[in-house]
Amino acid sequence: MLAAYARDHGADRDRWQFLTGEKTSLLEMIRTGFLLPVRDASGNAKEPILHSSRLLLVDRKGEIRGAFDALDETAMEDLVLQAKRLLDRDTP
């Protein structure tokens, strides 16, 4: 199901990972784990969960290192820069 979703939305499977599970658990994880707004939109078959356009940078320890607006080109450039810095720091 997730492979079909990725294909239908043109997602590069080398760059994206998709998550599925029980809806209330997913919504709770997004709210409390990722600290992002999310809304159940069960009436919308194409997008049953409405979520933020923010992307989180999470380090190897699972700590959130930053939040970036996916719709802002400058924010995306900053995300790439900070991710490279984290990788450089963690590379032996």
Summary keywords:
92 residues, 3 helices, alpha+beta, two-stranded antiparallel sheet, globular, single chain
Describe this structure in words.
It is a single chain. The protein is an alpha+beta fold. The chain has two domains: 52 residues, no CATH class; 40 residues. 39% of the residues lie in helices and 18% in strands. The chain contains three helices and four strands, in the order ααββββα. Strands 1-2 form a two-stranded antiparallel ribbon. Strands 3-4 form a two-stranded antiparallel sheet.
Order of helices and strands: HHEEEEH
What is the gyration radius calculated from CA atoms?
Answer: 15 Å
The termini sit apart by 37 Å
Task: Detail the poorly predicted runs.
Answer: none
Main structural class = alpha+beta
Indicate the percent of residues in helices. 25-40%
Topology, pairings included?
Blueprint: H1 2-8, H2 23-33, E1 38-40, E2 49-51, E3 54-58, E4 64-69, H3 73-90
Antiparallel strand pairs: 1-2, 3-4
